[in-house]
Amino acid sequence: MFCSNCGTKNSDNAVFCEECGYRMNAETAAQTNGTAAQAAAAPQQYQAPQSSANFSASQTYNPSPDKPGRKAKPILIVLISVIAVAVLAAAAWLFLGKSGFLSAKSAEGLSAPEVTATAGNGFIALNWETVDGAETYRVFTYDKNTKKYTLLADVPQGTGYTIKSLKNGTSYVFLVRAGDGTVWSPYTSENLITAQPAAPPAAPKVKAQAANGTVTLTWETVSSAVSYKVYAYDTAKKTYTLLATVK
């Protein structure tokens, strides 16, 4: 009796094929006995033996062949991810660097300018030395009660600014910040400067005593005055000539 699955010749009373394990039944035996001569004459095909898992006749094992580039796909994904991260990092670096967050200046800041104040009649003149790296300066007033700064002016490349129309006898507090357009010197109380405009002192009451070829001038002291200047006045030319400074 021949196996209808693999064509192997088995004993007439075999229940399973001795070669492939296929189940042999009476119907199969009848069919194969009737065609024994044809089966014997036909060339036998090799059929790989089934594994111990007993695959059915309709099941076939078709392992997928190795495909070129299959292992390269994960590497390509990783490479694309690395490039994307690099691009994002570069963009962040440019943005933060331009905004000053990653620059050395942002960590240290620009030095605050050293400011001097000269008070006059209704005005205060601020002057300062240039700061390395600074491109502009900002002048602020500071309110000690509200602890707020108010911007008065931007002074590009300047070293001085005069605040006018101030009230004499009133103290004013100022801050000058140096900057390069991105980084600025800090807001600190150490950099505040206070000044008080004042009206010029009253003219002293002068007495003159003439003598032989001389004139002696005397006057009473004036409060807040630290020096006195003596002038000669030419009534014809209407000009003053400084004669002396008395302290």
Concise account of the structure shown:
By secondary structure, this protein is α+β, with helices and mostly antiparallel strands. It contains four helices and eleven strands, in the order ααααβββββββββββ. The chain is rod-shaped, with a radius of gyration of 54 Å.
Instruction: Give the SSE order as H and E letters.
Output: HHHHEEEEEEEEEEE
User: How far apart, in Å, are the first and last alpha carbons?
Assistant: 145 Å
The shape, in one word, is: rod-shaped
Round the mean pLDDT to the nearest integer and report it: 78
**Which CATH architecture of the largest domain is right?**
Sandwich
What's the total count of β strands?
Answer: 11
Q: Enumerate the strands of the largest sheet in spatial order, edge to edge or round the barrel.
A: 4-3-6-7
Structural class: alpha+beta
Question: Low-confidence runs (pLDDT<50, min 5 residues)?
Answer: 32-43, 48-70, 97-107
The top level CATH class name of the largest domain: Mainly Beta
Instruction: Estimate the strand proportion.
Output: 25-35%
Let me know the largest β-sheet.
Answer: 4 strands, antiparallel
Topology-level CATH name of the largest domain: Immunoglobulin-like
Helix percentage: 10-25%
CATH superfamily of the largest domain: Immunoglobulins
Cα-atom Rg, whole angstroms?
54 Å
Q: How many helical stretches?
A: 4
Number of domains: 4
